[in-house]
Amino acid sequence: MLKSAGRALAALLVSCSPALAQPKEILLGALLPLTGPAASIGIEEQQGVQFAIDQANAAGGIAGRPVRVRFDDSQGKPDQAVLAFNRMIDLDNVPVLITAFSSVSLAIAPLATRREVLVVNPAAQTDKLETASPFLINTIPMVRHEASVLARFAIDKIGKRTAIIYENAAAGIDGRNDFRKYFEQVGGTVIAEEPVEFGQTNYRSTLLKIANAKPDFVYIAITQSHETMADQVGQIANFPVSIGNTFSRPFFGHASTNGWYQTAIQSGYPDAGTLAAFKKQFGTADMGFFAREYFNATNIVLEAAKSVLASGGTLSGPSLKAAVLSIKTFDSPIASITFETNTALRPVEILQYRGAERALVETARPAQ
Amino acid sequence: MLYLQLLIDGVVSGCAIGIVSISFSYFYATTGIFHVAHAGIYTLSGYLAWWMVGLGTPFAAALALAILAAVVVGYLTQRLLYRPLEESGATPLVLMIASIGLLTVLQNVVAILFSPNIVQFDLPWRLSHTAIGPIALSLPQAILGVLSLLLFAGLVLFSHHTAAGKRIRAVASNRELAEITRLDPKRVFAQVLAISSGIVAVPGVLVGVDQALQPYTSLLVLLTAVVAMIAGGIGSLTGAFGMSIVLAVIQSLSVAVMPGRWSVAAVFGTFILFILLRPEGLIRSRFSRAI
């Protein structure tokens, strides 16, 4: 009697096993710099992720399942990120993780490969991220994609002789290398280059030296202290027009930088209702770039999860990655994203600072 | 033209570093304590002024209040940290480690209370600049240069021509004798740190107005100031101030002939060469202390 009851229970467990293996809720991980010097960016990114989760749950979840996100703090540091990654995978078994910062994403990339966890990078742009792991998906183009568009534009519209100011750190060095490579490919010449240190606030001697070289324009690749550099440019008579990439946005709005150019990843706003809901939920005046990009990237993950569940699959790193590449094109008011590889192809805009506006000069789609 | 502008920029930067150097030197020569937390007071005063300006306080008042706050922090540092440690027999190394600890605390307090980011003063006049022939100088640079020279002259005059200054020099010269003659070195030490801290608040604020504020970079400023103090001759305010200007000019001019990343190395290389040739520093002082 006891034996037959045991057999029945075992049979019941076997017949129910897919349902038992599939958790009731969908759990995502997000590894962001929530404290430390980059916390202001990390908190904006967190809002974007949380908002996407809340919107999905308000609409009934994904395939009827509620969605939850577990946040952990990387502090923008690779060592902390590795610890947090292991916590998330060992304790919560998350199949997918949204991340931030090149150094953090590069540090956890080998772990993602080994543990077969999908890592989604919505904002970091170091070129190495393209090949860091087969389980790393970049929803934003890399520095080199912007550099190729900018180099072509510069040689056509500005001049053939440039000087480069770059930050002596990963993003700045990548920016210099990529721009030099593409600019020289299209026939340009780099006549001078000067590094500056991360967090530096006195650029006067560097700016004077670069201006003295008399280039047609200056390519600037820094990620901090733009306002300070702009102020000090204002002190130098006839400083050449300058250009930069997405990181150059803080140069906008200064009298000394009027007429400068920058590339920007095309990143729109959600519809008015969604935008208003975001502002109300977080009490912000705007939905910033990082909030929009993390909102959009989370929606891409959720769409992939929906696709996996619809086909009867289980949520795992490999299944989610396959779903992203299979869906391939993700259109939203924020961005039109195509995945030919694990790095998104998106339009790149050339913007010029004209008084109080960043005027769109042209839009180009970089080659893969 | 390039060299002339770099020279002037170097002189102004040197004046700011010079004030850090003489204020550090004044305390070190008197007490023998390697007060690394001086860099933290430099940072704290800048952020305090920035915060007050953000609240609508007129700049002059914000500067005065930042100086006052630095005086209080300096005084309390001597009374609550260095003095108890000295009384419990702490070695100079222990005092220096404690000072490094205080620096870390101050930097983190600034980052938590104010901002971990690079911030700028909301003062429209800071963008004003004037051209004298081929030389361009921002208004904050001009103020910084003038105030630094006045502070330097003021401290030298105070040290040599006032009763309080002479008392401090007496304590610096011979602590044991000062104790016997009831000069109360412990009290004098607290006064000196208060004075030094108040002085260092001036470049702490004005460099922030001219460029920007950063919670974590003041240690490099202090390091350059200490190098200038040693090269100038420990205990010599003129030596420290003069060498600060020399080193800053070398750093600025070196950019014209080599990549900017080597400019700090050029400064320290010059220092090593100089100190090999003249170990006692530029101006030998009878208050010299070993590092």
UniProtKB/TrEMBL annotation, chain A:
Leucine-binding protein domain location: 26-354
Q: Where is the signal peptide?
A: 1-21
UniProt keyword terms in alphabetical order? Amino-acid transport, Signal, Transport
Write down the InterPro entries for this protein, in alphabetical order.
Answer: BCAA_transport, Leu-bd, Peripla_BP_I
Q: Which family does it belong to?
A: Belongs to the leucine-binding protein family.
The name this protein goes by in its record: ABC transporter substrate-binding protein
Species for this entry: Azospirillum oleiclasticum
The upper taxonomy is:
Bacteria, Pseudomonadati, Pseudomonadota, Alphaproteobacteria, Rhodospirillales
UniProtKB/TrEMBL annotation, chain B:
Which subcellular locations apply to this protein?
Cell membrane
Main location, first listed in the record: membrane
Write one Pfam family the protein is assigned to: BPD_transp_2
Q: Which UniProt keywords apply?
A: Amino-acid transport, Cell membrane, Membrane, Transmembrane, Transmembrane helix, Transport
User: What stretches pass through the bilayer?
Assistant: 6-29, 59-81, 93-115, 135-158, 188-207, 219-250, 262-279
Q: Matching PANTHER family, A to Z?
A: AMINO ACID ABC TRANSPORTER PERMEASE PROTEIN (PTHR11795:SF445), BRANCHED-CHAIN AMINO ACID TRANSPORT SYSTEM PERMEASE PROTEIN LIVH (PTHR11795)
Name listed for the protein in its UniProt record:
Branched-chain amino acid ABC transporter permease
Please give the organism: Azospirillum oleiclasticum
